[in-house]
């Protein structure tokens, strides 16, 4: 899980300042095709920045979730926490038996076009890890009745407005809310800490992409400039490509052949 914090302090929900004792977690999805978290938060260099001033950090919206899961600036998935977890959120309206706003922490998963399996896999896993960490923090059992529910399940229980999320999306990729709860419980037990080879390759790929976005260390800059000036390595944006990433034998051979 990649968690950043950017509270929406101008949102009326934040400013209302009411607190809850969290008894569960409600999962939502945004209902709009925009996977960037910066659609909903002002953002920063890591999250990406909202260019249109239409994020939720403003008055007059009458809605606010505790977190958003979606793409950051680097295209990888992360979570931005937007309210303190024990603040009373405005995420699910009300049903005939009351409102989960009074009991449940909420997060929104940013929807894309709902066709991309790799995006779904990434946000689903992020949502599992986020829910697991919240269940641990608040000592909640994700398999207990009514604890981890989606908006649609909240509606059926009479504690939320009539929305379909997330059951218009998860089943497209073979996941039910029972699967989700089971995955959260498994993650909490630590079963999934055993990394499979396929996961390791994914992590390695992700790690290298992260390294690839980092600028050169200050001490290395003169040597990099020297290598560029001597024509031994190619210049990319005033430095070399991916200065902090690993070098392969074939890349080394290319550099050596330029000596
Ligand atoms: Zn919802």
Task: Give the helix/strand layout.
Blueprint: E1 3-5, H1 12-16, E2 24-29, E3 43-44, E4 48-49, E5 67-71, E6 77-81, E7 104-109, H2 117-137, E8 148-150, H3 151-156, H4 177-189, H5 197-212, H6 221-229, H7 249-257
Helix pairs in contact: 2-4
The structure holds zinc ion.
Characterise this structure.
This protein folds into two domains: 3-193, Lysozyme-like (3-Layer(aba) Sandwich); 197-257, no CATH class. A hairpin with a 5-residue loop joins strand 5 (67-71) and strand 6 (77-81). It is elongated and about 75 Å long. The chain has a six-stranded mixed beta sheet with strand order 1-6-5-7-2-8. It has a two-stranded antiparallel sheet with strand order 3-4. The two termini are 43 Å apart. The model has no long low-confidence stretch (mean pLDDT 95). With 259 residues, it is of the alpha/beta class. The protein has helices spanning 12-16, 117-137, 151-156, 177-189, 197-212, 221-229, 249-257, and strands at 3-5, 24-29, 43-44, 48-49, 67-71, 77-81, 104-109, 148-150. Helix 2 crosses helix 4 (177-189). 31% of the residues lie in helices and 12% in strands. Zinc ion is lined by residues 28, 151, 163, 165.
């Amino acid at each position: 899980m990649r968690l950043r914090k950017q509270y929406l302090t101008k949102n009326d929900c934040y400013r209302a300042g009411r607190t809850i004792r969290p008894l569960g977690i409600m999962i939502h999805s945004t209902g709009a095709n925009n996977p960037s978290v910066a659609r909903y938060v002002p953002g920063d260099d890591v999250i990406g920045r909202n260019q249109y001033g239409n994020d939720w950090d403003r008055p007059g919206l009458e809605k606010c979730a505790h977190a958003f899961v979606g793409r950051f600036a680097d295209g990888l998935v992360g979570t931005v926490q937007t309210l303190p977890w024990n603040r009373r959120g405005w995420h699910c309206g009300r049903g005939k038996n009351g409102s989960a706003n009074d009991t449940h922490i909420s997060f929104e998963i940013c929807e894309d076009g709902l066709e991309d399996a790799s995006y779904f896999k990434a946000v689903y896993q992020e949502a599992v890890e986020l829910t697991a960490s919240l269940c641990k923090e608040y000592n909640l059992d994700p398999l207990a009745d009514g604890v981890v529910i989606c908006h649609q399940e909240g509606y059926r229980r009479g504690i939320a407005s009539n929305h379909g999320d997330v059951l218009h999306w998860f089943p497209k990729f073979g996941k039910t809310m029972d699967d989700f709860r089971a995955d959260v419980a498994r993650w909490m037990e630590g079963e999934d800490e055993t990394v499979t080879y396929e996961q390791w390759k994914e992590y390695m790929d992700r790690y290298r992409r992260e390294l690839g976005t980092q600028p050169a260390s200050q001490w290395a800059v003169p040597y990099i400039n020297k290598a560029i000036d001597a024509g031994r390595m190619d210049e990319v944006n005033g430095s070399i490509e991916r200065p902090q990433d690993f070098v392969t034998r074939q890349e080394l051979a290319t550099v050596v052949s330029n000596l």
